[in-house]
Amino acid sequence: MTSVRDRAEDDRRELPVRPTDEDPLAAAASDLIGGPAGRWAMIGGHRWWNPLRLMVLVVIGMFALGMAQKASCYSSGWFQGSDVQYIHACYSDIPHLYAQRGFATDLVPYFDRIPDSVSGSSSIHYLEYPVLTGLFMEVASWFTPHGTAQHSAQIYWIVNSAMLMICAVVLVVCVSRTSRRRPWDGLFIALSPALALTATINWDLFAVALAAAGMMLWSRGRVVPAGVLIGLATAAKLYPVLLLAALFILCLRAGRMRQWSAAMSGALVAWLLVNLPVMLLAPNGWAQFYTFSRDRTTDYGSFWLIIMERTGNPLSGVNAYATALMLLLCAGIAALALYAPRRPRVGQIAFLVVAALVLCNKVYSPQYVLWLLPLAVLARPRWRDLLIWQGAEVLYFLGIWMRLAYVTGTKHHGLTADAYHLAVAAHLLGVLYLGALVVRDILLPEHDVLRQGGEDDPAGGVLDEADDVFVLGTLPHEPRHAA
Prior knowledge:
The chain is mostly helical. It has helices at residues 4-14, 19-22, 24-29, 51-69, 71-75, 84-87, 93-100, 116-119, 131-142, 149-178, 186-190, 193-198, 204-219, 223-236, 241-254, 257-281, 283-295, 303-311, 318-339, 346-360, 369-379, 383-408, 417-443. The chain has one domain (49-463). The model is unreliable at 4-13, 30-35, 40-46 and 475-483 (pLDDT under 50).
């Protein structure tokens, strides 16, 4: 018979996890609003003020603050052709590309060639974004009335911001629902300073929201719909394909390759449905994103730039170097996943593979932090560690704009190359710091906060509570359930 103690433990596992109960920083910060939540705070789900609705309101508020931070650029900074948009750290690609990629003149993305005089670059002949992101940009242009160049660009940014705000809400909802007992984890997203500062720089948040939705569906065991959404995310930005690689290695260890194949098939079909029409009807326009990414030289934010500028070596073979390093890191992550004493969680391996791309890439735009944001929350939902990482990313956010202000301005207000290298190093060290903690949690599962309650992998879906069937090495393997 089940003992009273066992029943109490089972009941405890069914209750939602309160951040103030398990996170020291959250408990200390709660003093500002009256202290930790009481025992009845999470009971009575019929009440309107549940965690999800509260977090949706918080992320809308933070997103609005991020838009307000761009106010000086909205009024004039984007249109003065000076370093004002960098000095005020309010730059955005969106209003500039409205004219430079032909949306202001109703050019059809991928099908209509962009004149060099409009694009401002002899290497940009067509829209250099993946197809689904191009559709997102085109739909926003449908709701942008033609007028003066400045006014139309402003409205285009507003329309895109409204659409991206919806993506931010979707992101919070998906992260909060990925782990059934941890609805408050979405608050990490809602209160993220990096999200507020970078959400309207570019269109990355669209792909991030799709990928997060795919991860949520995977956690519910819906492998085909999860694959479809990950495929759509890959059609909007290339990095989500790495999520399938992370799932592959975990499914290999758990003997769930049939489920992975189903997810992969869904992703491939979804990607082809979006890309194939453009690929067949406008092959040159479709290929622009891939050729631009291949031919792009070493750019801001990468450690390759630091090496190039400090040594004077042009690094003409940076594509090969970056690819080799990425493959090496992925091989190490795969070995870690297969040798670890306990199968790593989905969030942990997904974070590590995308972090490897961020570290190896030949460019790091400040909005790329959004790629890691939901994965970092799934990998290690600890306020202290996430805030340390976010602090490093905010330093880089300021550093890149101050560097561009120095380079483009006549008065050279901003950061010298040496100072900017320190900002890049802060970003790299922040990612490495969080990655090192995730690796430690994998090697020492007793440090993993998500497993201290006796659970296996709340985001694992078909992997949750699965027995291992393919493990390398001779390390002693723990049972699925903690003692």
